[in-house]
Design a protein that fits this description.
This protein has 344 residues and is α/β, with parallel strands linked by helices. The protein has 14 helices and eleven strands. The protein has a six-stranded mixed sheet with strand order 7-6-8-5-9-11, with helices on both faces. Strands 2-1-3-10-4 form a five-stranded mixed sheet, with helices on both faces.
Length: 344
Amino acid sequence: MAWKRWSFIILFLLLGLPGCESRVIDGQQVNRKEKIIIRFSHVVAENTPKGLAAIRFARLISERSGGTIEIQVFPDSQLFKDGEEFEALSRGDVEMIAPATSKISQLLPEWQIWDLPYLFSNLESVHQVMDGPVGRSLLKQLEEKNMVGLAMWDNGFKNLTNNIHPILSPVDFNGLSFRVMSPGILEDQFTYFGADTVLLPFNDVYKALQDGTVQGQENTISNIYTKRFSQVQKYLTLSQHGFLGYAVVMNKTFWDQLPGSARELIEKTMAEVTLWERETAERLNEVQLEEIEKNNLVTIHTLTNQEKTQWKKDFSSVYDKFEENNDSKLLEEAQKWSEPKENN
């Protein structure tokens, strides 16, 4: 099939991009007599931004450690579904996961700030918040749950698909049922306009759309494309209403037991891979949108900037609820850093 062939080509090209060559950093070698195994579990396909970055990270760590550190990557919910990852990490069944920020908000409610509709105007504003005081503060919170936050990765901005009618404004949610990733803001943004919501693990979404358990969902283009949602949906609204990102985290007890040289190697390599992952996510979303358009399986509506401005006003109640349940200063700080750089 065309999507499989194109996915393979993307995987081949991206893994062959410059920068994957073997480089060993002086002073970073761990004890060669004790090989370190790190199991990295995630729930998306290998040809997504997160999947490709996990492969790249594992490859570079192996090369730079001389094979003394091995990252074993388990994609596509091979080990655990997205609702099971935290318990698996806590038990020590895996050492590393990369859950969506929305999933983390079930443990740490302030992480819902990443779900606020139209908080970010573009990817630059997302990265300013990620890499600034707000992002650092949220990553620090993970230590309360015995986790270490190593990085934050992109998937991109979310869009809407459904089987019933075009969605041109939030009032069109009325009467539809949508799959949502987690309770809280992601549910509120739909139920406020009269929609029903169903909580489902990511890898159950395709079947639910196919058999009508739910009528619509929100996701990035890369997820819509790699999971073939456009084959079981009729309408796609390029709303870019919310951001979908990930936190790459490790079990803190395991992390603290690693040799200092191993931690340093992991941190340096993760920082490099994070920049690569963000660029890759943006590129894949662009390329795969073109493929969806070529396949001509869904009717596509693109929101104008004026329509997006109105949508943000329509979602004001979601912001009010966030401020009621969380520190309003966090939102103020995020809004400040999400502005163009010249205004900061």
